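Shall we go through a protein fold together, starting from nothing but its sequence? Label the sequence line and the structure token line clearly, so we can match residues to local backbone shapes. Would you write everything just below, so we can both look at the same thing?
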Amino acid sequence: MRTFASIVVVTFLLSAAAMPVHAQVSHVAPQSILDAAVQDHVAASAADRETVQRLLERPEVQAVAGDIGLDLRRAQSAVSTLDAQQLSTIAAQASQVERALAGGQSTITISTTLIIIGLLLLILIVVIA
């Protein structure tokens, strides 16, 4: 019986020692691919931030913000605090407004105004939360 117990203990110790060795196996993806994915994410976030900031600098948006009493400087500073998902959503809306304004609309329609107001409010709500 003592031999059986010794065999069990030795087997257990060997299997316990093998676990850390197995845990040190390299990642499935090479480091270069992981680095490229991080760089892509950073670049996409930077592009989204630039899109939102560019929209907030437009005179039409500044006029709408002034008309409804929103502090545009606060919204501009809040863009840097947005997480990736919030930033992506707001950048998509900002792109839509930019396309509408660049498409030859000389006046801001009600739908564009609502998108701008919604965008500004969303930025401010995220900052407050």
